[in-house]
Write a structure and sequence with these properties.
about 140 residues, mainly beta, 7-stranded antiparallel β-sheet, 5-stranded antiparallel β-sheet
């Protein structure tokens, strides 16, 4: 079964779900950490000093966080579905009430982050800022 695994710094657990890439091709993974009491998704990678979490208009770098992993032989199937303006499909992966895992392309990168249906957009950590887009992909459990 897929689950969230605790980690820290640049340590990416085995079988972490790859969710995107940097402009130079380095892989990015789905991370989550608690910011202001809200478990918020963002990005992590072996080249990063921790999880980069978009929240409150800026990027929070968190040393102790969780990565979404799917061990070999796990049950279930996940995929990315195109969405927009805060919509999330049934069975979208939720990290807190109204906060879902999403991603979108920005400046040659495909970056995981959060969907906030209240604000009608997705947010990613990029260049030290929280960047938003009304068009994104939702991470969904299919089976």
């Amino acid at each position: 079964m897929a689950h969230w695994a605790k980690t820290e710094g640049c340590n990416i657990p085995e079988n972490a779900v790859r969710a995107g890439y940097e402009e130079d091709g380095r892989p990015l993974y789905i991370a989550r950490a608690c910011i202001d009491g809200i478990m918020t998704p963002g990005k992590a990678g072996c080249h990063l000093a921790g999880a980069f979490i978009p929240y409150g208009g800026k990027v929070h770098i968190v040393q102790h966080y969780e990565i979404f992993v799917m061990p070999s032989g796990s049950q279930g199937f996940y995929k990315w579905l195109p969405d927009l303006k805060g919509y999330v499909p049934l069975n979208a992966v939720e990290t807190a009430p109204g906060v879902f895992v999403g991603r979108f392309q920005h400046c040659g990168s495909l970056v995981p982050g959060k969907i906030d249906w209240n604000n009608g957009c997705a947010y990613i950590p990029y260049g030290g800022q929280e960047v938003s887009s009304p068009c994104y992909e939702s991470f969904v459990c299919i089976k």
